[in-house]
Hints:
- This protein is of the alpha/beta class.
- It folds into two domains: about 120 residues, Aldehyde Oxidoreductase, domain 3; about 150 residues, Alpha-Beta Barrel (TIM Barrel), CATH 3.20.20.70.
- It contains eleven helices and twelve strands.
- A six-stranded parallel sheet has the order 6-11-10-9-8-7. Strands 3-5-1-12 form a four-stranded antiparallel sheet, covered by helices on one side. The chain has a two-stranded antiparallel ribbon with strand order 2-4.
Amino acid sequence: MEDVLAAAQPLIELAIAEDIGPGDATSEAVLPAGLTLRGRIIAKDAGVIAGLPVVKEVFSRVDPMLCFTPRVRDGTSVAPGDVVAKVTGPGRGMLAAERIALNFLQRLSGIATLTRAFVDTTASTRATILDTRKTHPGYRVLEKYAVRMGGGQNHRMSLNDMLLVKDNHIEAAGSLTAAVERARAPHPDLPIEVEVKNLDELREALTLDVDRIMLDNMDLDRMREAVQLTGGRVPLEASGGVSLESVAAIAATGVDYISVGALTHSAPVLDLSMLVSNPTTTEQL
Length: 285
């Protein structure tokens, strides 16, 4: 969690600068300086929550007097109407932080929710759902954390985590074998994966000392042949155009991993809202 919060800090500062700036003109005009409010963050849709520690940091950064209390944990499934968290404290700070907090929580929860859908769809197979590097700039650590909260696993975090020899590397090197040999020479301790687009390239990759083979945009018949040809010698990863509608059939071919760019680049936000009440009135939370 320390890495997630560290990655969130500059994003929180940026969000405060662009959304609050010198102050919340409306709240400062309408709310008395000493007014205390109570807020509830409510789920409006069914989904999986992710990002509550980040939201706590948002409220604390805007006003250290705000007390944020999660009612569920990250990775928890919620239904419409469920209370996700409560916050109590200075009203001006609470309302100023509201949109920033919800932006983080809705985005990360949306990723966790979509990931859980892919994981559930493939639950009866051996396939593991992976994310990709198709993340929003600056948000990679947070978005990959949300994938884990949804039950998926992370592929490489950055270009220096592992060797991944893709079609452009192969073209530049002249052959798949040459690309793998050149990649491994200066980095003998890094895991290496190679991308193949047909069965001939797969046969070539199987003669090399690689840790994983990516089947790039293969149809289902080619994937099944690839699984049979490989015979479990090297883990296989299916990649390219994977959707929630197609993932079950892909998993059924017997591949070990399925990487899904949509988890982070196309996940819809989870609909959440914050309801506020004044404890001096008869309204109760």
